[in-house]
Amino acid sequence: MPATNVAQERVKAIYERETKRFHRDRPKSAALLNRAKRHMPNGVPCAWMEGLYFHQPIFAKRGEGACFWDADDHKYLDMNQADLSMTCGYGPKALVEVMQQRVADGSQFLLPVEDSIEVSAELANRYRLPYWQFTLSASSANMEAIRIARAFAKKEYILVFNGKYHGHIDDTMGYQNSGDDSLGFTKDFSKKTINVDFNDLAAVESALKDHPIACVLTEPALTNIGVIKPEEGFFDALRKLCDQYQSLLIIDETHTQICAWGGLSRAWNIQCDMLTLGKTVAAGIPTGTYGMTKEIGEFVASHLEAEDELDSRSMNGGLAIGGTLYGNALCMAATKVALNEILTPEAYEKSHILGNRLSTGLQRLFDKYGLTWLAQHLMGRSGYTFGPEQPSNASQLAGIAIPFYITPCAPITWR
Ligand SMILES: Cc1ncc(COP(=O)(O)O)c(C=O)c1O
Questions:
Q1: Which of 16, 235, 256, 368 is 20 to 30 A from residue 221's alpha carbon, by CA?
Q2: Atom of ligand 1 nearest to the CA of 84
């Protein structure tokens, strides 16, 4: 945090007092955590969850609308919506009914179900790309999109922007030439991933010139380091550069789908070749999906099969995409409900009003207390920067770091 007129000692004292109180008031969560440590590293199903917040993990019990309750019956208004995976709210009635029926009728067949036709048609209508495929998470949607891009463009490098996050996948986790020392990766895993600053078209062009780049993968606005918006004309120019160097433009709308009906790529008319989604697209039922142009869709359809049977078993020769549970009946039914009944144009309109109210309220508070901080407003997603100006790339954010999990957002299910 930059030097401001904040009394650091006072903040520290309040933080320590509140942390103590927080832990004292949650004995059931503490007991569950102790029990959980016997069979899970850190006592949580994903070891990183332990350090997600600045307090011991709390165990969630149930949720309703925009709120959830913990094991000690504390109620929380979820302003981060489980990192935007629960923007459709906890326990929406329409979803509950459909899920009950779907499980009773069979949730997975390793066969297509009719819902997949309606879902892909609606995704095509909303996100302006004609062909769709499904996975179980946004990470795997990005992984498959990159793989297809490499096969389609016949190039191996990818370009991403500093400060990005596209899931825990090797291709997007590394920083080329940074002496990356992340554990568990092969030594050279990041050598074909180029990272440049968002909004820096000269750096993009020079990377495209110097390397055989299959695709540029980016969010329409970076949302994992606060919010960084594109400068005027950035995406038009990026599109032109991608065309000039025969690189695909993949837009990751995993987070930004909550900003506008059809995502920010529709709102800002960004022309992309592929588009990836996950999180709330199926109202929190684990689902990822990616859209593609007609040309890429046809390429996928005609490049799955390996030359002979031996190759097809070893996955040599064809495009390696898909998984046993991908595109299952439960995911399809959930996505249909989310798109048709929850993520409606009216819901987005409401979230814009709430998002505006949130950022205006935050700014009023900052001004009232003389803080040189800036509230941001990106439709339903509002946040703040611990500095007076909106940064335009990750480098400018250095020194005013914002942990991703405190980016607030107006819940569309707020009543
Ligand atoms: C923009 C973006 N893409 C992809 C992902 C990966 O999502 P998941 O962890 O659900 O696979 C995230 C997760 O935060 C994300 O923010």
A1: 368
A2: 14
Q: What is the 358 CA–ligand 1 centroid distance (Å)?
A: 24
Given a contact cutoff of 8 angstroms between Cβ atoms, the answer to whether 286 and 280 are in contact is: no
In angstroms, what is the span from residue 41 Cα to ligand 1's centroid?
A: 23
Which protein residues are within 6 Å of ligand 1, measured from CB? 83, 137-139, 142, 165-167, 219, 224, 252, 254-255, 278-279
- At 361-414, the pLDDT tens digits run 999 999 999 998 888 888 888 878 888 888 888 888 776 655 444 566 666 666
More confident residue, 355 or 199: 199
Q: What domains sit in the chain, N to C, each tagged with a CATH number?
A: 8-91+345-406 (3.90.1150.10), 93-342 (3.40.640.10)
Among 144, 185, 412, 161, residue whose Cα is nearest residue 304: 144
Q: Indicate which residue's Cα is closest to atom 9 of ligand 1.
A: 167
- Rounded to whole angstroms, how far apart are CA atoms 180 and 289? 30
Atom of ligand 1 nearest to the CA of 139: 11
Question: Which residue has the CA at smallest separation from atom 2 of ligand 1?
Answer: 166
SS3 91: coil
> Which residues, other chains included, contact 385 with Cβ-Cβ below 8 Å and sequence gap of 6+?
226, 373, 374, 376, 391, 397, 400, 402
H or E segment and range at residue 104: helix 93-105
